[in-house]
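Comment thread on ticket #2218

A.B. wrote:
> Attaching the input chain for the structure job we discussed in standup.
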Amino acid sequence: MSQLIYLDNAATTKVRPEVLQAMQPYFTEIYSNPSSVYSFAGKSTKAVEEVREYIASMLGVKSNEIYFTAGGSESDNWAVKGAAEALKSKGNHIITSTIEHHAVLHTCQYLEKNGYEVTYLDVDENGKVSLEALEAAIRPETILITIMAANNEIGTMEPVAEIGAIAKKHGVLFHTDAVQAFGHMPLPVQEMNLDMLSASAHKFNGPKGTGFLYIRNGIKLGAYMHGGAQERKRRAGTLNVPGIVGMGAAARLAAEEMEERRKKVISLREHLIERILKEIPYSRLNGHRTDRLANNANFSFRFIEGESLLILLDQQGICASSGSACTSGSLDPSHVLLAIGLPHEIAHGSLRLTLSEETTREQIDFTVDQLKDIVERLRNMSPLYEDFLKGAGANVQ
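C.D. wrote:
> Ran it. Output below, let me know if you need it in another format.
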């Protein structure tokens, strides 16, 4: 197959033609700064506010609770640091999980160096947070719970509504990193008792460098960036009008096509999982078998290195990853796979395949066929695999 097969949609997605078309006028025709006072600027302002209202309607919240940002990492940083700063007179304790995106984990580690205490909840073998452990971790000085809606590596969906109920019961703010989830699954904010939610446009066929943070009215988060009065004086900087318009167009398409797309992608994902687990020995699926993002399939293959696997797949025109794109280049195994209990040597042999609405069954079959050959070739070069076959590795886990 000569065409490119892109199976790394958790890293980023293709901008839809309709999205690009919606953005184009705001580069060359309606290029005004929405903060200006003349009537020409009103066209940009109107476009921005229409997107704000639509995203709010998707979440079931008020439009003045949506703040535009430069993406998921900024939104996560703002939520976690902002809550810590705003509530430091009440307490200094934050609860998160061991499998969060580094935008949350590294922010929490930064706060630990500045006098805050952080509890990192363990997860089970499927990547699920224990509700009992969560509630037991809450202290009088707990000010924030930040647990992701769905994991970016293994696809496991967390019990967000149940976590929200616990947080509300104890009067603790609850933030969820929904970067992988928004546009791919319903997120009824009120039912989930969410106080803050992060999202990024390039994860649902929008442009890179654009995102938003939902902040429930009444939460006194301070300004994240200083210098201007944009975003109700909370996030200074000239608004990225083309990016925001593109995010709005992508959000509308995602909402309109969500159910149809989920059904199609789940069917392809199941075909992919069944073939790999049946046809490639010593392979395992990582993450919850059913409570997972529709397009996510994460595998570990014993006796091989994931980096070699990715290089050989790339030579066949197949784009995949071994984990988060934000940690590419790192020689360390995925912190998510270690957190679900995999030993280092198995975590190193991981592969994440994430599908899109454009993925075909033919592409899936070609990928599995190539993967079978590549895994066999790499194992034949492995002395560990040779020892295993001879019986010396009978106790390898």
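A.B. wrote:
> Thanks. Noting for the ticket: The first helix runs from residue 17 to 23.
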